[in-house]
């Protein structure tokens, strides 16, 4: 798709969404990863729209990703919840979620909140733990900005995960008595899980968690001027750090066993944001 085609698709999506959001445009976009679907059920006065009914939206094809946009409120914040993402490993594209994120930014969203399921490299963050992303490592060095005009494609990634948003999340978690350590998330392309040798390399690079998402969407959001907050749910210890047999079914099972606690914490974080 050419830059002109992408621009036309984005304009069509924005125009369509303008007819669906009502009198209160969303201020926070939320992108749900595997195991975080419970958050969509916490949205008040929800209006659900299938991705298939939105021009230019991708077709979510991975288990645990509903593939629908949920409009409504979380506490004081009008939100647009993207219940499901399309990963780079599904079609070899890093810009799968670029159009939805840019469209929601054009509608008035100031913040993108992301979630994912991850493998832990840190024994103090066992399965069921949460980690707030302080930074990331783009191991595949893939970018959703490839093909943008030269004048516009460059974006700084210092403080990619907004420090003020992270402080707010930490304060909310502390008030609820829930540990919320920060760490570095390393993106691997997938869909295969990492080898023990790759995990040892990730640890040497300074990563505390590893997963197959989030980084491309953060790049898009920062390029579009949105602030980013992201949280990982640890669903397993990374390869070589336990005797678990890793699989997507195992990831979903472990995420489900965490219950709705992570979603309720995140809903409180979002609902009490001051924007």
CATH fold annotation: Rossmann fold
Second rung of CATH, namely the architecture? 3-Layer(aba) Sandwich
Number of domains: 1
**How many strand segments?**
9
> How are the strands of the largest sheet arranged?
5-8-7-6-9
Characterization of this structure:
The chain is of the alpha/beta class. The protein has one domain: Rossmann fold (3-Layer(aba) Sandwich), CATH 3.40.50. Helices cover 30% and strands 24% of the residues. It has helices at residues 3-18, 88-91, 98-107, 163-175, 196-205, 215-223, 248-257, 261-271; strands at residues 28-32, 44-50, 68-74, 77-83, 111-120, 130-138, 182-187, 209-211, 227-237. The protein has a 5-stranded mixed β-barrel, surrounded by 4 helices. The model has no long low-confidence stretch (mean pLDDT 91).
């Amino acid at each position: 798709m050419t830059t002109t085609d992408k621009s036309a698709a984005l304009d069509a999506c924005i125009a369509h969404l303008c007819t669906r959001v009502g009198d209160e445009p969303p201020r926070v976009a939320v992108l749900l990863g595997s195991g975080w679907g419970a958050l969509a059920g916490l949205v008040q006065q929800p209006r659900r729209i299938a991705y298939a009914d939105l021009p230019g939206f991708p077709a979510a094809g991975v288990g645990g990703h509903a593939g629908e946009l949920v409009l409504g409120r979380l506490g004081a914040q009008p939100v647009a919840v993207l219940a499901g993402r399309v990963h780079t490993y599904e079609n070899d594209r890093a810009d799968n979620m670029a159009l939805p994120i840019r469209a929601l930014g054009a509608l008035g969203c100031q913040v993108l909140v992301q979630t994912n399921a991850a493998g832990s490299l840190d024994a103090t963050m066992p399965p069921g733990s949460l980690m707030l992303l302080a930074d990331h490592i783009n191991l595949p060095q893939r970018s959703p900005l490839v093909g943008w005009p030269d004048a516009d494609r460059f974006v700084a990634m210092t403080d990619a995960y907004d420090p003020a948003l992270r402080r707010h999340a930490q304060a909310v978690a502390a008030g609820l008595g829930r540990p919320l350590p920060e760490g570095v998330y390393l993106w691997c392309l997938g869909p295969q899980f990492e080898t023990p040798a790759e995990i040892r390399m990730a640890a040497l690079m300074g990563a505390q968690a590893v997963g197959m998402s989030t980084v491309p969407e953060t790049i898009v959001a920062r390029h579009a001027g949105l602030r980013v907050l992201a949280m990982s749910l640890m669903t397993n210890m990374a390869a070589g750090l336990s005797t678990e047999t890793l699989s997507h079914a195992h990831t979903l099972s472990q995420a489900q066993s965490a219950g709705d606690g992570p979603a309720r914490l995140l809903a409180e974080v979002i609902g009490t944001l001051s924007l």
